[in-house]
Amino acid sequence: DVKVTQSSRYLVKRTGEKVFLECVQDMDHENMFWYRQDPGLGLRLIYFSYDVKMKEKGDIPEGYSVSREKKERFSLILESASTNQTSMYLCASRTTGLPYEQYFGPGTRLTVT
Amino acid sequence: DAKTTQPNSMESNEEEPVHLPCNHSTISGTDYIHWYRQLPSQGPEYVIHGLTSNVNNRMASLAIAEDRKSSTLILHRATLRDAAVYYCILRDKRYGAGNMLTFGGGTRLMVKP
Question: What average pLDDT does range B35-44 have in this prediction?
């Protein structure tokens, strides 16, 4: 069974803290993604990576950075957490080529106080 | 970018068929139509995809209009576990080799016992 796992289901951090969200996939996928999901705004793409050490900005990269040192692991970093980054964060990975079936992790609900 | 339009919500009775519509009048010739669903407190999961012909799998059927400007996801016998938000998505070419999947608002399906 394919698996995308995220390091935490729930996380509470203080404003200004550096936050690391970890994602691991066991499917040998080249492509990995970070989204955030907010009520009324749907899923929005933050960053994606199509290979080790390669990254591209998504729709809302401001305030975030990413790291992909190994194929199976994609980390989302909040350099200095702010309250407007309170959200559900979803990691996903995807097959290369058509039809681009995407597998999601269970999500991390981050609260910044 | 090709976009999709779905009703915000729909209701169904348990064990009855459900037809979830999606309009995508600006679809391009090589866009695949994907459906994902998101159960409460989980990440989205793949349901089905198609290009031109109708498709069936163990979860659902996908009926695609001849002009491809609309499609319908069919759940043959809704169960309480099918209550979820259903997303109709077109492959997005904005990011070149990334070929993003852009999630809209989706349809919230409620299933009544």
Answer: 93
pLDDT range class, residue B97, cuts 50, 70, 90:
very low
| Phi/psi of residue B43, nearest 5 degrees | -75, 160
How is residue A59 written in tokens?
Answer: 């729709």
Res B29: pLDDT: 81
3-state secondary structure of B80: helix
Rounded CA-CA distance A66/A35 in Å is 12
| Per-residue pLDDT at B104 exceeds 90 | no
| B33-38/A42-51 β-pairing | unpaired
Model confidence band, residue B105 (pLDDT cutoffs 50, 70, 90): confident
Q: Does A32 touch chain B (CB under 8 A)?
A: no
For A26, left (φ over 0), alpha (ψ -120 to 50), or beta?
alpha
How far is the C-alpha of A89 from the C-alpha of A97, rounded, in Å?
25
Q: What is the pLDDT of residue A48?
A: 92
**CB of A95 within 8 Å of any CB in chain B?**
no
How many CB atoms are closer than 10 A to CB B30? 9
Residue type, B58: R
Instruction: Give dist(CA B7, CA B22) in Å, integer.
Output: 8
Give A101's contacts in chain B (Cβ within 8 Å): 34, 46, 49
